[in-house]
Amino acid sequence: MKNRLSRIIKPSSGHAVMLAVDHGYFMGPTHKLEEPRKTIEPLLPYADAIMCTRGVLRTSVDPKTSVPIVLRVSAGASVIGETLTNEATTTSFRDAIRLNAAAVALSIFVGTQHEHQTLKSLGQLVNLGEDYGIPVLAVTAVGKELEKRDARYLGLACRIAAEIGAHFVKTYFCEDFGKVVKGCPVPLVVAGGPKLETELDAFELAHDAIADGAIGVDMGRNIWQSEYPVAMITSIREIVHNGASVREAQQAFEEAKKTKTPILTKNPVM
Ligand code: 5RP
User: Fold this and answer.
1) Ligand 1 pocket, 232 CB below 6 A?
2) pLDDT by residue (tens digit) across 9-42?
3) Which of 40, 108, 230, 268 could form a disulfide with 118 if both were Cys (CB 3.0 to 4.6 A apart)?
4) Which of 139, 203, 217, 232 has most ligand 1 atoms within 8 Å of CB, for mutation?
5) Where are the domains of the chain?
6) Cβ atoms of residues 85 and 112 within 8 Å
7) Which is the closest atom of ligand 1 to the Cα of 72?
8) Total-model pTM
9) Which atom of ligand 1 is nearest to the CA of 170?
10) What is d(CA 218, CA 157) in angstroms, rounded to the nearest whole number?
């Protein structure tokens, strides 16, 4: 368990830059992720882990990669359906093991009509994770009710996920995020959410989340919907692993934009 977690959360910094590309499981061919392989390949060398479904893993990720896989195993709803919250486990643990997942991920929908079923699924997944030494990432999803993104709601959802046994939790950044961190006894990573207006906004989000105690990001759209996705992920790395300020990250971004293969101050696979 610890060894797998250490492949994702790098012991050298205690932090992680996870690349989220699982959006298609409920959003279909999302903008800039229409052809997953094209989006993923240039970014993979700079990711500490890739979060995806088995469909994208099978079709669009080179099996020779050594980047750890965080396999999304829940699904069951779509953006055009009645609700986003009606999810269940759709990928078996056996398949996750066969696919050499370093961790498995599942969404919980606290406070919705599907709270019970998604929390029960989390418990069952943790039971299997404990059997086989595979960590579970609980995603505190918010469905269509984005107004629930406050410290009280996210703190509740993250704490419940940790109490059920999630080994790490993915949530959203919010005002008073420190309170969410304080109430959650397992590591937290933050999603980026929909593409922000500027790169600077995304750097601020990552910076403030780390400053408040998140151990990293599990970011998607703010990286690969940027005009310069590689420059974006390498600059986010500077914040997450090297303590860069927002200004330093912006400078790194401007530099990286000019370079085909950005130089990193630290090797991403360490
Ligand atoms: C959806 C997810 C996504 O992976 C998550 O939202 C991260 O991507 P983004 O940074 O684009 O929000 O788990 O439930």
Assistant:
1) no
2) 999 999 999 999 999 999 999 999 999 999 999 9
3) 108
4) 139
5) 2-258
6) yes
7) 13
8) 0.95
9) 13
10) 17
